[in-house]
Amino acid sequence: MWEELIAALPDDPAVRINRAVTILKWIDETNNALSSGQIEDADREQQLRRELEAAYALASETVRSLAEVQVDDYRAVLLRAELLSAQARRSELQEALGLRRQAVKLMADALTTDPAQPILAAAFDELVQEFLADEPALGHIQANALYASYQQQPRNLFLLSRACDVLLRNQDPRLSELLDATLELTLPMRGDVANYLRRMDPSEVVANAKQAIASGDWAAARMVIRWINLFKGMAGFKADRRLVKPDLMALLDVQFLDRWASALPSPAAAADDVPAYQIQQFDFPAGVVAWYDYDLDLDFDLFAVQGDQLVWVENQSGELAEPRRIDLPISGAGMRVVDLYPVDDPTRARVDAVADLMADGPPEGLAEATEAAQGAVAQSAATEPTAADVARARRHDTPQDLLIFGPDGVCLVRPVVSDRSRVEGLEVVAESGLESLASVVDVVPLDIESDGDLDLVVSTPAGVRVWQNNGDRTFTDTTQFSLYLEPVPLLHLSAGDWDGDLDQDVVGVDQQGGRLILLENILHGQLRWVDLAQRGWPVVDGLRCAALADLDSNGGWDIVQVGQQEGVVACAHLSQPGQWQPLRRVALPVAGERLEVGDINNDGHLDLMVASAEAIQVIAGDGEWLQSAQPRLLEPTAGAVGFAVIDANGDGGLDLAWHTLQATRVGLAQVDADRGFLLARIRGIADDNGGGRINHYAIGSLLELRSGAWSGRRIVREPMSHFGLGPLEPDNLRIVFPNGLTQDVLHPGRNALVEEKQELKGSCPFVYGWDGSEFRLITDLLWNAPLGLQIAPGEVLPDRRWEYLLLPGELVQPREGAYELRITEELWEVAYFDHVRLTAIDHPADTEVFTNEKVGPPDIAAPRLFAARQKRPVARAVDPWGRDWTEALTAADGRYAQPFRRLVCQGLAEPHFIELDFGRLPVDEDLQLVLHGWMHPTDTSLNIALSQNSHLGLPEPPSLWVVDRDGAWVCAQPFMGFPGGKPKSIVVDLQGVFRSDDHRVRIAGSQQIYWDRAFVTWATAPTTVRIADLALETARLRYRGFGRLLPRDADQPHWYDYSDVQLASKWPPIEGPFTRFGDVRDLLIDDDDRMVVMTSGDEIVLRFALPEVPLPNGWKRDFVLHSVGWDKDADLNTLAGQSALPLPFRAQRAYPPPPDQDTEAQRVWELNRATLTRQRQMPSIWFRQVEMASETRATLPVAVGGAN
Q1: CA distances in angstroms from 416 to 334, 435, 453, listed in the order given
Q2: 3-class state of residue 861 by DSSP
Q3: 108 with 138: CB under 8 angstroms?
């Protein structure tokens, strides 16, 4: 096909560029597959190797042919260099070095001619490192290129950091000029490195360095490196690095691909008709209208602001009642429907409409959705859900509020919920927490810092303000932490993940200059002002409004802009997370003041509705970019000041409400029964099974609906999202929640409410053992070594990199002449394993052995082995409410004591204790309390949210309390440690803790811990234990996939079925590099900073030698797994959580490593560089994939607007 395209378009450089990119990408992925051991079929492996040779030859021919069509920009140089690098990866050492040297020379020549090429400069900067010592001239080219590229992108923190570093190394006086820029550019981001700045004044460091440079004292000037190294820990560093170090697929010329794709027939035929509307007029003018289901009856009611009055019209299944009114304390000019409660706030008002819903039997549409909804409900229930259970799972139960704003400030209108959990009216909230806002132009809710509640971006006449939701109905102005916010108001604010990097951005229109502005989210509560015209987006004269929509289903959000004279569609392409690029400009024959996007004729293609004072016009979607569409009047309207669109009565048609200066009208759509639709109601949940990280209405989530080759995408902004289907039946609905969790719903039906899936996103790697017939999950690892886990902004939990875990012998049986363990990474995280060792513990069968493993510092978890023969079971166990848990604690049988009644959020329970009575104990003995249980943790985002809430605190770990001589309870051990994650036993030393003859103990705290067993033991006679370290025979890293999460009750840990594997990725990608697949034994033998770096879907297969000495009769063999390493989850608030770098190491004092340990960090990187050669590819949640056959007979990935 490529040869045919080149013959047809001989002068089109895009064909050859795309051919080269796709072949080189295929070569890279095929090499990874071959080196990983994924190809088990020998014939298939040989075929791939033959095809690989052909692909190398084809890539060489294609890259050489670029000169024929005069492709001489940076892409041609990068492709030639990439080809040489690819050839080097399969060559012997000296030949590979020569090939890389050629690649460096190519880039050096290009940068000598034109140094201001940021992407080429960043690639050269990485590749040139190994040649600098032998060729100093390359260092000057490197410095000039980085300096010039930074001048071209003066707000790019990554380029500034690299330029400063290289200029300092070269003793280049231009460094002084850049040092001043470091102070201004980093000012809003210094909170990210606040701990380090306590010992450093950047202004003083920069001033001293500049003085040293001026005097030629470069040794003194080197002190500034401590300041420069801090940039890597700042929020903007990674975002800016992505801009200049994109994936290879970003080189695709997607304009050609879009031209090719436009010739493909759409599975859903476009219709150019406009539905008929049943019009009803209300004789009250309005300044703004909105649809708002304030009483949660699934019908959206009409709301309008008329000066200082709020008017609303009840919608009762399509019948509109008489208007009602309440007075407002301000004169409103706009309103937003918002839910400002955290999803796990126990004080939020809740409505139970299920009794009314089910009174006359399940409503229409419930039966079709039951199967899909039950899948989500049943995740947390051991019993089959009833129709009422399904209905409750599908219904939102917290009413939203109405935020009204204008020149006088803001006011909040809230539904009044009765004692019977019914909505009985509306009221103005006396204290909203937003009283200090004096004048507001626009407001948009979004979860900026991914902590589970909705913050507010507020546009005022003086500029944009960022208001952080503290989780207790109070707000903090955090505008100071954002970058370059200009003092101008923005109109038509719209929020969503526009650039595919999983955080919530904002787009708005500059009210004064008519510019399109992106407020780019760079994590940790920070936004960055970006004028999109400066990134190549088209400019529209007199721009009034804009909307984002994936008009062509290519995975990139296209921007529709409408001005007073013209309209424009800016077609877009998402090449990789953070790389959102304009493709082309398509003119629209329409102008106006307001814009809405939706599929009003249910044909499967998004339509545009544009309102002006003269008319409301519709441009019917065509699945492309509306290139041939002509506007049609939406009869019988005669213009509108503003309007709102939603399916108000759940019949599948998009209903309209619009207003003029004289009246307000409602148009209820008369739907075409032959055209299908889907209504998706997405709910974030709050319970002990993993909720609390997503706002209740899942605002900001991405929905992707597929039916065969057709796909439609929506950002959740309302309680209900509408898809038109035409003749299609939906196959799959994928949800990407604002925190990165994904969920797929097969055959979703209609009007289905899908819950946030009850599943961990990050915890720790799992270890599975062979029980003689199958692999079974034993427990999780590395619980003491979380990296970048914030317990408050800038405050990081320390890590302890080693652990000694007991593995029961019945789960570690010989398999094919060895003991085989499998360590899997199944969640959204990165694991680092430096060393593993398995030790056999042989002991009499009537004796139990335990390690001293617990979550806690080394002084309470020092390695020690306990042998328990004499055991005193608990005689009585009660909680603060008198509930008896004695039976639950007699054996480790999966029946758990839950000594709390209420959970605040995942990981945080109400303060509680469990009181254990063992009777009189022999206090002269070496008493040890053995506890078996599991705990559900918070994560970084929840910790951030808790730290913002003045009424809550972080979970309190268990403490040990005893009774003193006065009968009072006193704390004997403020921190006794706790079992990390999945069920484990911990040992608590009771020697010397008792203060009286009353030997009861209490375990008190507020962590979400479930206890399964408790007893006291002491040594009555010496116990013989035989210990043998087992040789690690083999260790192999490979891709495995993801085990199935088993159904569970609320007090049970998450458990997985090893035998039921899903190969497809469940999580968004984490930036690498990761350890190449294959033999990793040498990396795990010693504790030496050489490590295995693994991520979601990876598995290490470990085989250990059997002991030479047989097990005596009457004895039992257990095992201790000693592992050294770290774990880092990809929570958006985890420091460096979206990348495998920087690498941790033995001597690190903090993570990310502090600046004064940069030399050691570089040493560890160099130690592991050779094995860290694997990258993860973007999953298809952002892309539509197209496959084309190549001349190599392999399948090359070809993108239509994007690929993976």
Answers
A1: 22, 21, 21
A2: coil
A3: yes
CATH numbers and ranges of domains, the chain: 153-252 (no CATH), 677-757 (2.60.40), 761-846+1025-1153 (no CATH), 848-1024 (2.60.120.260)
Residue 1157 pLDDT: 86
For residue 438, the tally of other CB atoms under 10 A from its CB is 12
- Confidence (pLDDT) at 637: 55
pLDDT along the chain (1204 residues), means of 10: 64 79 85 67 85 89 78 80 88 88 94 92 92 91 95 88 93 94 82 73 93 94 87 77 78 58 56 84 88 90 93 89 93 91 66 50 37 33 45 70 93 87 87 86 89 89 90 82 84 87 87 87 81 84 88 79 86 65 79 90 90 84 71 68 87 88 86 86 61 77 85 90 89 81 75 50 83 94 87 77 94 96 93 97 92 85 86 94 94 92 84 95 92 87 74 87 94 92 91 94 94 88 83 94 83 88 78 90 96 94 94 94 93 80 92 84 92 66 33 27 25
The residue assigned the tokens 């999580």 is 1067
What is the sign of the dihedral through the CA atoms of 473, 474, 476 and 477? positive
d(CA 128, CA 145): 12
Compute φ and ψ for 757, nearest 5 degrees.
Answer: -70, 135
Question: What sign does the CA torsion over 36, 40, 42, 44 have?
Answer: negative
Which residue is associated with the tokens 């970006």?
Answer: 530
Contact 47, 61 (CB under 8 A): no
Report whether 921 contacts 958 (CB < 8 A).
Answer: no
Dihedral of CA atoms 526, 529, 535, 539 in degrees, nearest 10, equals 140
Query: Phi and psi dihedrals of 33, rounded to 5?
Result: -65, -40
HEC profile of 767-804: EEEECCCCEEEEEECCCCCECCCEEECCEECCCCCEEE
3-state SS assignment for residue 31? helix
Q: What is the DSSP string of 809-843?
A: GGG--EETTEEEEEEE--SSEEEEEEEEEEEEEEE
Q: Which residue has the tokens 């008198």?
A: 882
Q: How far apart are CA 716 and CA 697, in angstroms?
A: 8
* Interatomic CA distance for residues 854 and 1029, integer angstroms: 22
Distance in angstroms between the alpha carbons of the first and the last residue of the chain? 20
C-alpha radius of gyration, the chain, whole number? 32
Helix (H, G, I), strand (E, B) or coil at 1071: strand
Contact predicate 596/612, CB 8 Å: no
Angle in degrees, CA 352, 354, 355, rounded to 5: 95
Chain center to CA of 171? 41
33-52: burial string, b at 16+ Cβ within 10 Å, e else = eeebbebeeeeeeeebeebb
Q: Which burial class, exposed, middle or buried, applies to 1071 when counting CB atoms under 10 A from its CB (0-12, 13-18, 19+)?
A: buried
Burial class of residue 320 (count of CB atoms within 10 Å of its CB; 0-12, 13-18, 19+) = middle
DSSP state of 917: E
Global pTM value: 0.71
DSSP readout, 725-753?
Answer: EET----EEEEE-TTS-EEEEES--SSEE
Query: 3-state SS of the chain: helix, strand, coil percent to 5?
Result: 25, 35, 45
Q: How far is CA 874 from CA 758, 962, 986, in A?
A: 33, 15, 16
Sign of CA dihedral 1144, 1146, 1149, 1155: negative
Residue among 1078, 984, 1085, 1099 at smallest CA distance from 1030: 1085
- 602 neighbors 724 (Cβ within 8 angstroms): yes
**Of how many residues is the chain composed?**
1204
| Distance, CA of 334 to CA of 259 (rounded, Å) | 41
The neighbour count for residue 896, using CB atoms within 10 Å, is 23
Yes or no: say if 738 and 698 are a contact pair by the CB < 8 Å rule.
yes
